[in-house]
Design brief:
By secondary structure, the protein is α+β, with helices and mostly antiparallel strands. It has two domains: 3-217, tricorn interacting facor f3 domain (Immunoglobulin-like), CATH 2.60.40; 312-469, Orthogonal Bundle (Neutral Protease, domain 2), CATH 1.10.390.10. The protein has 13 helices and 19 strands. It has helices at 3-11, 159-164, 237-258, 289-293, 301-308, 324-340, 346-362, 383-400, 402-416, 423-431, 438-447, 450-456, 461-469; strands at residues 20-32, 37-48, 54-62, 65-71, 80-86, 94-106, 111-120, 142-145, 153-154, 171-179, 183-185, 189-196, 199-205, 214-218, 220-225, 228-233, 267-272, 279-280, 284-288. The strands form four sheets. The protein has a seven-stranded mixed β-sheet with strand order 4-7-2-1-10-13-12, with no helix packed on it. It has a five-stranded mixed β-sheet with strand order 15-16-17-19-18. Strands 5-6-3-9 form a four-stranded antiparallel β-sheet, with no helix packed on it. The longest helix has 22 residues, at 237-258. The two termini are 36 Å apart. Bound molecules: zinc ion. Zinc ion binds next to helix 6.
Length: 470
């Protein structure tokens, strides 16, 4: 797990409905390295998702990006203000808070499009957000992404707004113009590339509804095989070839385990320099160079983790999701390493360490022992979904066996990949399996806290499994 992701996990999600959600971005961005600036033209469609009418559209933009004009789609100017403000809870994190007055109030569910022109510099956020947002507009590498507010995002300078971006679901079509020796990498569908006067414009659109857009710019090499597209630095040609092999083997293993992926168009891996953080969106992973050189024995674990998420239906809950998917992905990453890297005993060993990690963190956290997994979202404790959630799936795996376990995950994916599924949907499927202890298992691990006591008592997975086999 990486800094960027841990930051999100630590702060966890909030359920409150945001006032505005992005529906569509239609953007043109010119990157000018001579002035270290970007010039952007953004047509943004938003919808009012609150329960009442509203006329004021609040947007967040990077602190050194400045809006020069806002109009409606007919070109009529709309009044707006912009002010640099710090986040309520993070005084070091400053953003340009843009407030646009719409011509009239928008009712709940109504959409509206604004045309925003902005320009300026990006110098990262090394002073905040864990230090991985270190981008600048410079060669040989830059990245335009959600984390640095390189494009306007509806919201307020609060942690709640920041966390809410993960629930966004929008379409995008973005055209980025760079000097012709550079390549723009994005995880969406490559639409076109046109060159003129020493500059090349790359156009991408999203493949699935997106919650973030990332555009990495460098003199990338591109490798494509079996729907996997890799953008990598040319010095790592051999490593990239190896990594492609790892990705293909992993996809093949997961297809064998979880069944064929539905609606698979392409999946991209985009290399970024060390220290820029690793990230996953719906159809791509951004990975720093360490993963390509794979000096660390555990370098592939994160890849397995992220790829396994492709088989996870969206968690749909009336309350903030507990994100048990993270427990499943964490369990899967160790199981995949056991299989693909012939590291027998790795799941058992990791599970013990992870249990201990859960106990150590939980004992110093108010209400942790009394909070069941189902409430981790509401209680802002989803960091335990990775740890205790991993042990949960390990116990289940040992209890019902490999084939039954994979069959379950396959059926859940088949049933809910389109609509998303809830914890209840999963636990009902578990209880349908022909095993006596499963009702008790579900009650104790998803909805109750007896499971935490087993871990506090230092019980091994084997000992816990035997409880349900009595
Ligand atoms: Zn994950």
């Amino acid at each position: 797990m990486f800094l960027c992701c841990m930051f999100f996990v630590a702060a966890s999600l909030n359920s409150a409905k945001a006032q505005w959600e992005p529906v569509k971005y239609d953007m043109d961005i010119r990157v000018d390295y001579a002035s270290a600036k970007i010039y952007a033209d953004c047509k943004l469609t938003v919808t009012n998702t609150s329960t009442g009418p509203s006329r004021n559209l609040p947007l967040l933009l990077y602190r050194l990006l400045s809006v020069s004009s806002v109009t409606d789609m007919q070109g009529n100017a709309l009044p707006f203000e912009q002010n640099i403000k710090a986040f309520d809870e993070i005084p070091r994190l400053q953003v340009n808070v843009v407030s646009i007055e719409l011509p009239e109030k928008l009712e709940e569910g109504e959409e509206y499009s604004v045309h925003i022109k902005y320009e300026g510099f990006i110098f990262g956020y090394t002073e905040a957000i864990g230090g991985y947002v270190r981008e600048r507009i410079e060669e040989p590498f830059t990245i335009l992404r959600q984390d640095s507010y390189a494009y306007p995002q509806p919201g307020h300078p609060t942690i709640e707004s920041m966390m809410h971006v993960m629930h966004h679901s929008y379409d995008y079509k973005v055209n980025i113009t760079v000097p012709e020796h550079l390549v723009v990498a994005n995880g969406g569908k490559f639409v076109s590339k046109t060159s003129k006067n020493g500059y090349t414009s790359y156009t991408y659109r999203n493949i699935k509804p997106a919650w973030r857009m990332d555009f990495a710019i460098a003199s990338y090499e591109i490798m494509e095989d079996s729907g996997i597209r890799m953008f990598y630095f040319s010095a790592l040609d051999e490593e990239a070839r190896d990594l492609m092999g790892v990705l293909k083997n992993t996809m093949a293993l997961f297809t064998e385990w979880f069944g064929p992926l539905k609606d698979f168009e392409s999946f991209s891996v985009i290399q970024v320099p060390a220290g820029y953080g690793s990230q996953m969106d719906v159809t791509s992973i951004i990975q720093s160079g360490e993963v390509f050189t794979r000096d660390d024995i555990n370098a592939n674990l994160n890849l397995y983790h992220e790829l396994s998420h492709l088989w996870h239906p969206m968690e749909i809950e009336p309350r903030p999701p507990s994100r048990w998917n993270e427990g499943l992905a964490t369990f899967t990453e160790y199981l995949a390493a056991e299989k693909l890297e012939e590291r027998s005993g790795l799941v058992e060993k990791s599970s013990m360490a992870i249990s201990q990690n859960f106990v150590n963190r939980c004992k110093n956290m108010p209400n942790c022992r009394e909070t069941p997994l189902i409430d981790y979202g509401k209680a802002r404790m989803t960091q335990h979904s990775y740890t205790k959630g991993m042990v949960l799936f390990h116990v289940l795996y040992e209890l019902i066996g490999h084939d039954e376990f994979m069959g379950l995950i396959q059926r859940y994916y088949q049933a809910y990949y389109k609509t998303g599924g809830s914890t209840h949907d999963l636990t009902e499927m578990i209880k349908e399996l022909p095993h006596e202890g499963l009702t008790r298992f579900v009650d104790e691990w998803f909805y109750g806290t007896r499971s935490s006591e087993y871990l506090f008592e230092g019980k091994s997975v084997e000992e816990i499994v035997s409880i349900y086999n009595e």
